[in-house]
Amino acid sequence: MKQIKNQGLRPFFLLQAGQFVSLFGSRMTSYSLTLWAYGRSGSVLSLSLLTVCFLVPSIFFSFLAGGFLDRVDKKKAMLVSDSLSALLTVLLLVLFQAGTLRVGVLYGVQFLLGALNAFQDPAADVAVSFLVEKEDYVRVSGIRSFCISFTGIFAPMVAGGLYGLLGLRAILLLDLGTFSFAFLTLLFLVHIPGGTRGGEREPFGRACLEGLRYLRGQRAILHLILFMGYVNLVYGFYQCFLPPMVLSRAGGGEMALAYVNGAIGAAGLCGSLLVSAIGLPRRKVPMMLGLLTVSYGVCNTLMGLGRHWGVWVLAGFCGQVLVPFLTSGVDFFMRSRVPGHMQGRVFSARNTMQYALLPVGYLLGGVLADEVLEPFLAGSSRTAQGLSHLVGAGPGSGIALGFLLLTAAGILGMAAFSRDRALRALDDDGEAVDS
């Protein structure tokens, strides 16, 4: 693998600075569009469809992106995908100014953004592998988690304030400003060496399938991806439930949702600092399973039983503070065991498999909330009245019951994966040899 030598982490920090600023703007826009869309539809399913429209093309095109990204310059791929995303933001701004922006239009825009994300994210992931040395993988993963968590803390708060004061237009303009900073930083200050496969190029279709063929021969890595697929399924339900529950319950509202998202971001920031400072244990798989069990048990239970934003803030913090250890462990296994020249295809195949259940969680969560849980808790049956003493009554109480169901699903899932010998073998397997 060709990497930048004698420059330490400077190239990575330059790349990350631009990505961080751009992510902050994108998170602000996403949060503001959530408020805007929910204020017009009032439906959990309608809100979850916004995310599904982003996830489905992102997952599908990730499968195709791998064969493409291993053939092209990663920097150019990132610049092009970011530029097209900015044009879509301009489109939203124009439609909003003209008074013709509708929730249905957002579905189409989200679909296109998801398709672009399928190329941008794997390109950035692989670029990091070419910019840093192996001994810095855990530290770099912690830094990236820190940036994501920081935006999780402040982007919703800033967006919530600006949305109330200046409206959606100001946030879209600010998003375009953050894009400009990221684009210029990447264009002029960051050089990403290597990263394309030399020699005779194989057919594109075969290149796309090669990532799946590689994973088929790496049983431990394949089981790691299946494990993360289940984690993402539960996460899809969680993310579908959280905004409408906090927005609709008596102890919630728009600022309450900003506080909860801020606490989740703060927890991720603290966890990122911890993992960067103390690193990971030698045996990482038992750590990952144990931390998720605790996270599911504490976070979802408090979310379901809480009836005030203060409890939900505590729940969000407890649930997220351990997650950077999980993501750093997964990142370490993928980067250290997949050869550099294969990472574009393998990471893209991984994204397709790992995130395929995420939109399923969003869709099922929306249907479950709108058609089953909310009507059931609003009914007059003895069971519903008994459960109302546990999770409360009124709008959002059915979704609160859904969080308690997630507690059971998460803990049972971790218990099942703890018996997976292939997954546990990751701590014993050797490292990939790059060529």
Description:
With 435 residues, the chain is an all-alpha fold. 80% of the residues lie in helices and 0% in strands. It has helices at 10-41, 44-69, 74-98, 103-131, 137-165, 168-189, 204-216, 219-248, 254-278, 284-305, 309-320, 323-337, 343-355, 357-378, 382-391, 397-417, 421-424. The protein is globular and about 65 Å long. The model is unreliable at 1-6 (pLDDT under 50).
Secondary-structure blueprint:
Layout: H1 10-41, H2 44-69, H3 74-98, H4 103-131, H5 137-165, H6 168-189, H7 204-216, H8 219-248, H9 254-278, H10 284-305, H11 309-320, H12 323-337, H13 343-355, H14 357-378, H15 382-391, H16 397-417, H17 421-424
Helix pairs in contact: 1-2, 1-5, 1-6, 2-4, 2-7, 2-13, 2-14, 3-4, 3-6, 4-13, 5-9, 5-12, 7-13, 8-13, 8-14, 8-16, 9-11, 9-12, 10-11, 10-12, 10-16, 14-16
| Secondary-structure element string | HHHHHHHHHHHHHHHHH
Largest sheet: none
Number of helices: 17
Dominant shape? globular
In percent, how much strand structure appears in the residues? under 5%
Uncertain residue segments: 1-6
Cα distance, first to last residue? 7 Å
What structural class do you assign from the helix and strand content? mainly alpha
Please tally the β strands and state the result. Answer: 0
How large, in whole angstroms, is the Cα Rg? 21 Å
If you average the pLDDT, what whole number results?
A: 82
**Helix coverage percent:** over 70%
